[in-house]
Amino acid sequence: MEQVKTKSLKNIEEKMEGLDAGSLRYHILESAKNFKSSWVELGRSLYSVWKDKMYKEWGYVNFDVYVSREIGIRKQTAMKLLKSYYFLEKEEPQYLKTDYAASAPAAQIPSYESVDILRQAKNKKALDEDDYNSLKKQIFEKGKDAQELKKDLGVIIRQRQELEPEEAQEKRKLATLRRLLGQLRMLKQEVQLLKMLPMPLIKELEEMIKKIEGVVHDS
Q1: CB 5: neighbour CB atoms within 10 A?
Q2: What is the pLDDT of residue 165?
Q3: What is the pTM of this model?
C-alpha cells in the first residue's frame, strides 16, 4: 500500500532524485526533509527549554535570542513548533507515542504548520466536533499541506457563518461592544486624571460603563 505523503515532502524527494548524494544541494534538501519529518522532537525540546527557561543557563537573556543565535530560527517559527507539540501532547497524544512514530513513515508525519492550523481550529467556536475531526483526518490520514488545510478551514468557517447569520451578527455586535467598553474605560481614566469633567458627569460615565458591562456579561 502506497504511503501518504505531503506535497512538500514529495517535491523534496523528487528534487533529490538524480542528484549526487555527496553534493551540497542534496545535503540541503535532505536536511529540509529531515526537519519536516522530525519537527516533533525539536518541538518537544523547545517546549522544555521555553517552559523551564533553560536558555538562561546557557547564557541567553531570553528565548527569542536563544532560538535566533543558537539554532538559527525565528521566534515565530519556534513558537509554532513548541505550541504544535504541546497541542499534540494535550489533545492528540496518540500521535506522540513511540509505536506511532516507529510505524509511521517519516513523510506521513504532518508538518508543524498543519498541526498549528488544527490547534487554531480547535479553539474556534464556529466549528463543531465533526468539523475538527474532518480536518484531523485530512492531516493525519491524507497528508494535506498547511496551505490547503488553511483554505479548507476558511471555507468551513464561511459556511458556518452563512448557515447561522444571526449568531455571526451577534458575535460582531459583542466584539463592537467590547471595543467600545475598552475605549470608555480609557476615556474615564484620562478624564479623572486631568479633571476635565465635573463629578456628576463622571458618575454618569461610570453608570454607562456599568450598563455596557452588563450587556456584555449577559451576552
Answers
A1: 16
A2: 62
A3: 0.54
